[in-house]
Structures are given as structure tokens and as C-alpha cells.
Amino acid sequence: MATSTRNLLLFAGVALLFILTGLFQSWNLSLQILNIGILSAIMALGVNMQWGYAGLFSTGIVGSVALGGLAVVVVSAKPVPEGFAAGGWAVLGGLALGVAVIVAATLLYRAMKPGRLRALAVTALVVAGFFLYRYVFDQGVAAVEAFNPATYGNIGGFGLPSLLAWPVGAIFAGLGAWVIGKIALGLRSDYLAIATLGIAEIIVVVLKSEDWLARGVKNVTGLPRPWPVPYEVDLQADPEFVARVTGWGFDPITASTIFVKLLYLAIFGAVLLAIIWASERALNSPWGRMMRAIRDNEVAASAMGKNVTRRHLQIFIIGSAVVGLAGAMLTSMEGQLVPGVYSPLRFTFLIWVMVIVGGSGNNWGAVLGGLLLGWLWLAVEYLGPGLMGWLTAALPAGDLKTHLIDSAQHMRLVTLGIVLLLVLRFAPRGLIPEK
Amino acid sequence: MADTPFLIGENMTGGYGPVDILHNCTIAVNKGEIAVIVGPNGAGKSTAMKATFGMLNLRGGRVMLDGEDITKLSPQARVRKGMGFVPQTHNIFTGMTVEENLEMGAFIRDDEVGIKETMEQIYGLFPILRQKRYQAAGELSGGQRQQVAVGRALMTKPSVLLLDEPTAGVSPIVMDELFDRIIEIARTGISILMVEQNARQALDIADKGYVLVQGANRFTDTGEALLADPEVRRSFLGG
Amino acid sequence: MDFLNALVALLNFVVIPGVAYGSQLALGALGVTLIFGVLRFSNFAHGDTMAFGTAIVIMFTWLFQSWGISFGPLPTALLALPFGIAATAALVLATDAGIYKFYRRQKAAPIILVIVSAGVMFVMNGLVRLIIGVEERNFTDGARFLLDGNTFKAATGLAEPLVIKTTVAVTVVVAVICVAALFWFLQKTRTGKSMRAFSDNEDLALLSGINPDRVVQVTWIIAAALAVIAGTLYGLDKSFRPFVYFQLLLPVFAAAVVGGLGSPLGAIAGGYIVALSEVVLTYAWKKVATYVLPDSLAPDGLMQLLSTDYKVAVSFSILIIVLLFMPTGIFKGK
Ligand SMILES: Nc1ncnc2c1ncn2[C@@H]1O[C@H](COP(=O)(O)OP(=O)(O)OP(=O)(O)O)[C@@H](O)[C@H]1O
Ligand SMILES: [Mg+2]
To answer: Where do the TM regions start and end (chain C) (predicted)?
Structure first.
């Protein structure tokens, strides 16, 4: 009883933060932070599955988020038929060729007897395959990128509804997790951390430098909104909406932005609750109990005949897929894909801190951590420079003052790091501990 | 001989976690004697040795060395008090040469000359080690490794040596050899407390024997008496 | 003649930069592997330890420059190195006493220490940015070249220049000295041997009376020194940016894993393997090819296997190949 009151109080405290932001700053900002906070909470749920349920530590969360974002471009960006016609098939063919080479190499590796001959044959196949792939692929890329590079220069998307991109984002991230998990799970636990660090960096580099795909650092903008969220301008042009909100005493422009954010809130909230519901059920099923048994004693579990690596692979894929889903939701809310935002700090580190502060192994803990740190993070981003400016107001203008104001953002790194270390040390079970 | 044992782990109770493995277990050895602990697999023999060496937290009982209560001392401090320990497994530095293994055994000593002397004695005791002194210990045979392990523990010039199955994985001939060496070591005045799987031969050379079952003392007597006891013979010595 | 030109181009653009970068990675990987051997976790803060040390070295370099102190033809940063090492060693020792020691006492799982080290990484990263900012810093001074291109061309009559930058020469010399000193320390001194013993078999080391706290402290100091040297050499050779040092973490880890975590010899081999693969795969081979191939076969592309953006993919692929085919690395680590 006492614990549930405590938990309610914690959530009430977080709610208060958002209400105060609404009252003293603006409701628009408060809702904006809340929506991103909910997406962070979903990511935290995914990470909690990996870390909290299974004890898997991934440093590549940002990679899953980015794959989710990419899914939105692939599914819902406007098609670029000319660009695609120019070289789309060559690009896809090249990629398919690349995959085929890897599959063929794997099959060859399995089919042949170990020895020098096998090493030679597999290497030869991979090298020859690589050049073939590059030959086909490069031609396609050049052709695609040549078409109207100022606006397009990429193969475009399918132009399908944005909502559809969400599950696709989950699938992309899940596939990525499958590949990396196949390789790095079952070895020393550090190896997963190192390998995921690498794959995440590569995913972000691909997004930044493969212009044919999602225009690289030129960004893809103007992605459609997910059904049923309308555009603010359309609302403002809708006489019925304007009449109704002015009747309630609101200014139509503010009302339209808030209405849109509330709609997002409803949708994201529903997804969040659905995921919590599903994972609570999973956690209390035989599968979830086995998962925790494995986490708590891997040796005993494998002695009992459980295939630990396989279970780990499952949970690793599911957790990454949940993160990918949130990544897709984020991109489709923002309406653009900007690869530059995918920093490990924001999307790997911050998410762990959410999970660990909230309480690893507990879904509600992850949600609380997501909302609380999501608020802190963004509030500091919006309010930090102002706060620093206010604190340093008495100082004379000069180097020191600029340095201090600039350093506000670096302080965020230090602060988060210290928070993580303190929580790990003094309250390793987090705000809402595992039951 | 002497009535107060040189080393005694008395009424030890405790284990690795919340579950107790030792229950009121007592093992002891007199000055210059050999005491042997036998018992079925999983009886807690190794655990009793580790407890005596301060490698697990005891919930009850105490450990006395030469009349001094050392229950609270860390294993390192016990090494400095003159105790040596050869664990059952992982008892050598596999990546280091035989000579380096011995040097590490002497880590707490800083009398260069004395160390060289002890090393010579050990090479005298185990001549094969001199031959292999620059070889990585991990590349030696099972029996040679055991010699390295015992040699390493002897480097501190301990007054009491705890050996956990020194003859594990060693052929019968080498085993006899090792037992001879152990008797030789005991003759120099070093007390030896040893766990053995080869109960018959071990009790044969033992001044005192302990039969442990499920973490508790089942039989305690002189080696000779235990060998003669029909019940011990039936249950633990295979007839 | 063409063949010689091709050879010189190969030396100039592949071998020399590869060896310099490899030395820098090897020093970094040595630190990671020593920490792993003794403390048994992969230290994610190592890249930022390198950055921190380099930042301090840069500050001292600036200070010396402002005092008019220089090191003749050699970079002033070399004079500043001891100060950087001292500051970094103090920082990591404080980190160990305040943070890692607690988990060691608890015998926490390695993965917990990995997470903790990631927390430390972010704090250090923030510290570095606070100290020196995020911009690129060049702090190389002294003579630019040991052998400059024109001299070489005039002396040999070849069309291709061979350039040896002072920083490259300094890198290689310093790396050789460090490695020799480290191996002497590990093989010949009592403390070094006790470190190896501890890394080989912790329990037995304790039973031999080796003081774990001392071993751990010495390890941190050596790792910090190696990190600062590696970071400074890298910064002299290229330039200093905190973000780049974070990204060095992956090649450094790859080098340590390739060689076998815990094996110093492996870390060195791994450093060169990773660096040379990176350079070979991202170098545009057109120049070399034009010399050796007949005109009719002259390449029209750059003949670059991977764009330099994908440097990170090289370390990653090497890492994956090792994990797939020999998880304990070439030199059989842990
Ligand atoms: N490190 C440990 N942690 C937890 N339990 C342990 C540990 N080592 C041993 N045990 C348990 O303690 C009990 C006694 O083990 P111990 O090693 O003392 O037996 P033993 O008599 O030496 O057996 P053996 O003849 O096989 O060497 C066993 O049930 C074992 O499972
Ligand atoms: Mg045993």
C-alpha cells in the first residue's frame, strides 16, 4: 500500500512539473515537452526490456532510433519517380547483390571443411562480391543523386501514410538488432556493449552520408503527419474550429497548436499504455519469469537446459524494436529527418539514465524516468541559457560571461553523468524499484 | 604429541551465500604433522579449507593459529602470519614462467638472498621444475603444475601449508612421488593440512584424519585408526 | 621509375600514415587492455581519458608558448606531456577511489562496471568541453617536416614526394620508447610481474600476498600515461577535437579485442592491424595504380574502396570478424 502511494506521489510530482511549466512558461511548451517525454518513455521501456529484464547492456540505442526515423522517410516520403527511374533499381539491385554475397559467403563457410582452402574461397568470394556490388551500386547512386539534387537527389519514399511507418520502424530496428545480436550475444557481456556502439555509429554515418537514401545531411523535410493529426494552418482556416475556440475564449492560433499537440498526446499515450500493458503481461507470463531467472542466474538457467543466448536474442530484438517504433513516431511528429540530431548523448545515454533513475526492471519506473528526465533535459535546453544569463547578469560582458553561458550545455553532460553515477551507487534500484 | 593444535578451524559454520555449507565443522593440525581431510564430492572439504584461510565469512566458530585468534584476518594477512595455501583449481599463474610463479609466491618477502635459497630448495625438492624454469606454467603437465603450485606456496616459508587435492589429475606413480615430497616437507617442521581424494594412501601417511560429510565432521581419529575402522572402510574407502 | 614512384606513393600515403596512426591506436589499446586485464571490464571512459589528458597538455603547451619556452624543432607539447600525465593520473586515481573501488569491493558484475565507466565517460567528456571547448585545436609547433617533399624529389629525381612529418617521426619514436618501457616494466620489475600475476589469476595473487589496491593503482597510472601520450600524439599528428576522441573509442576497442583483451602484445598488433586496414580501405588508390598499370588500363574512378566517412565501419568490421571467428583474439586474451 505504502509503495503504491509513494509511486502515485512520484507521478504526481512529475505532473506538477508539467503543470508549472504550462502555467509559468506556456502550455504549448509544456505539451511539447510532454510529447517528447512520452516518446522517451517508450524508448526507456524498450531499453528496460533489454537491461531490466535480461541484463543486456547496449550502447547503440541511438541506432535503433535512427532506423525508426529512416523508416518514416522510406514509407511516407513523397516518391521521386524520376530519381528512382534514373538509378533506383541499380541501387536496390546493388544492395541485394551485397546481401546475396554475404549469404553466399555464409553458406560457403558452412558447407566447406575448415582449413586454408575455405578461408581462401570465402575471402575470394567476399572480395569479388564487394567489387561487383560497388560497380552496380555506384552507378545507381550517381544516377539517383544527379537528379535535382537541390530538392531531391534521392530515391524517395512510397508516399504511404505515416502511421504505417511506425511498425516498419520497429521492424527495421528489430532487424538491425537481429544482425548484431546474432554476432555479439553469447560472448562476454562487454562485447555487446562495444559492438552496439559501433553499429550505432555506422547507422548514423549511413544516414548522414548516403544522399540517395534520405538526402544525408541535406535532410528530408515535409514528411506527412500521421493520421488523424491535422495541420495548424488548416485548423486556422477552418471556420468551424475558429468559431468554436473563440467561443471558448481562445486565440485560434494558440488553440490550433495546442489542439495538434493534444492529439499527438492522445495517440502517443495510447501507444505507451499498449506497450506497458503488453510488457506487463509478458513479464508475468512464464516467458517473463524465465527471462528474469536467466538474468539472475545465467549459469543455473543454462544448466536447466534453457537456451540463454536465444532468449537474449529475442529480448534484444523486441527491446530494439520498441525503441525503433518510438524513433519513427518522433520523426513523423517532427515531419523531418535530420540525421545530425542522432547523438549518442541524447538517444543512448539519456535513455539509460531514464531507465536507471526510474528503476530498472520496472515498467512504471522506466516511464517515470522517461517523463522526469525528458522534462529536465528539455526544460534545461529551453530554460538553461536563460537561467545562466540571469545568473551571470551581474557579471560584466566579456570572455568569462560568454564562456559561462556557452558552458551551460556542457554542464548538462556533467550533471547527467553525475546523476547516473550517484543513482547507481546509492539507489541502484531506482525511484520505483522492481517488484 | 602437543595437545593444542598448531592450526585449528573450530566449530566453523558458514557458506558462500545465505545457505550454510559448513555446520560446526572442526579441522586441525599439530606442529609438524600431516592432517588429511577426506569425504565425498561436495562434502565441503574445499569450503572448510577456504574457511580456515579466511576466504569466506564465517557465521560461527573461530580459527586459531599457534594460540592466536586469526578469525578476523584477511587471507593476505594470514599469508604474512605464515600460512600457505594451494587451492584445488586455478592454483598457478598459467601465463607466467615457472620461475616467475615461484617469485610471486615470495612476493611478501624482500630478502633477495633468502628467496634465491628457498627457490633452490624447491628446485631440489622438485627437480623437474628447475629444468622447466623458463617455460610458461600453463604449458606444463598436470603433475608438473601441481608441483609448481606447491612450490609457489612454499616460497613464503610457511609454518603451515594447506593443500587442496594436490594429487588431482596425477598418475599413481607421480602421486606416490608427491606424497613422498609432502612427507619430506612435513619433516622440515611444516604442518600440513590436506584434502585428498585418494583416501587410502592419504590416510596412510596422515597423523590425523577427518571424514567430512555434508559440511560436518563424521569421523575424526588418527589416520591408522580410521583405516582400521570397518564403517569408514565400508562407506568411504570402498570396502 | 614508375614502379619506384608507385612505391613512394604507397609509402607516403598508406604505410607512413598507417604506422603513425597504428602507433597511436596501439598505445590507446594498451591502456584498455591493461585495465581489462587487471580490473576486468572494458573502460568506456578511455577515449575521454585521452581527450582529458590531451586538453591538459594543450593548456600547458599554450602556457609554455606564452612564456616563450620551446623544444627546438620538436613540438612543445612533449614538454607539457608530464604535466598532462600527472593531472590525468590524479583524475583517474580519484575516480577509482571515489567510484570504481566501491564496485570492486562488492564484486559487481563486469557489465555494471562498464555502465559506470560510461557514466564516467560522460562526466569526463563534459569536463573536457568545459576546459577547452568543442572547437578544433591545433597545438603542433616546431619544425614541420623531418623530410620534406621537395628535398626528396630533388635528391632522388622521382616525381612522387616522400614526406615525413615531424609529428609522425615523434609518434613512432615515442611509441617505441613507451612500448619498450612498458614491457620492461611488466617482465622485469616486481611490481610489473605482480600486475601480470594479478591479471592472470586474481585469487592466487591475493593468496601470494600481492596487494590488490596497489596493483590497481599502478594499472590506472600506467593506463592514464598511455592514454595521454596516445591522445597527444594523435592530436599533434591530426588535431584535437573532443568529439573525435570519443569516436576513437571504437578503433581502440577493436584493436584491443583483435589482439585479445588482456594481452599487451595483442593490443599492439591490433593497433597496427586496425590502422593499416583503415588507411588501405579508405585510400584512393588511383595514384598508385596509374604508375603501375599500363595507360590502357588506367582507372577512371578514384579507386577508393570506402569513403573516409566510413572509417568507423572498418574498425567495426574487424571487430565483427574477430568476434565471429576468434572471440579471444589473436593472442588469446580473456
Ligand atoms: N564459490 C562457490 N559459491 C557457492 N557455492 C559453492 C562455491 N563453491 C562450492 N560451493 C558449494 O559448496 C558445496 C561444497 O563444495 P566444496 O567445493 O567445498 O566440496 P568438496 O568437498 O571440496 O568437493 P570435491 O571433492 O568435489 O572437491 C557444494 O554444494 C558446492 O556446490
Ligand atoms: Mg574440493
So the answer is: 6-39, 51-71, 77-99, 111-132, 162-186, 215-236, 312-331
**ipTM reported for the complex, 2 dp:** 0.89
Range B1-82+193-239: architecture per CATH:
3-Layer(aba) Sandwich (3.40)
- First vs last C-alpha separation in chain C: 49
- Determine how β-strand B34-38 pairs with β-strand B191-195: parallel
Angle at CA C22, nearest 5°, toward C20 and C23?
65
H or E segment to which residue B216 belongs: strand B216-221
Convert the pLDDT of each residue in B69-108 to its tens digit.
Answer: 999 998 888 999 999 999 999 999 999 999 999 999 999 8
SS3 state at A27: helix
Domain limits of chain A?
Answer: 3-79+156-426, 80-155
pTM of the model: 0.90
Is the CB of B208 inside a 6 Å radius of any atom of ligand 1?
no
Residue C330 located in a structural domain: no
Q: Which ligand is nearest to the CA of B88?
A: 2
Cell numbers given for C261: 583483451
Q: Closest ligand 1 atom, CA of B49?
A: 18
Ligand 1 pocket, residue B89 CB under 6 Å: no
Asked whether the predicted pLDDT for residue C1 surpasses 80, the reply is: no
**Which residue is closest to C263 within chain B, CA to CA?**
B95
CA distance A160 to A224: 9
Domain count, chain C: 1
- Do the beta carbons of residue B21 and residue B215 sit within 8 Å? yes
Which of B16, B38, B50, B90 for mutating ligand 1's site (highest number of atoms within 8 Å of CB)?
B16
**Residue with the nearest Cα to atom 19 of ligand 1?**
B42
Identity (one letter) of the amino acid at C241? R
What are the domain boundaries of chain B?
1-82+193-239
Residue B41, ligand 1, Cβ within 6 A: yes
Q: What is the CATH number of domain A3-79+156-426?
A: 1.10.3470
For residues A73 and A401, is the Cβ–Cβ distance under 8 A? Answer: no
User: Please, which residues have CB within 8 angstroms of residue A13's CB and are 6 or more apart in sequence?
Assistant: none
**What is the CATH classification number for the domain harbouring C58?**
1.10.3470
Mutate to test the pocket of ligand 1, among B41, B47, B194, B211 (most ligand atoms within 8 A of CB): B47
Q: Taking CB atoms and an 8 Å limit, are C205 and B156 in contact across chains? A: no
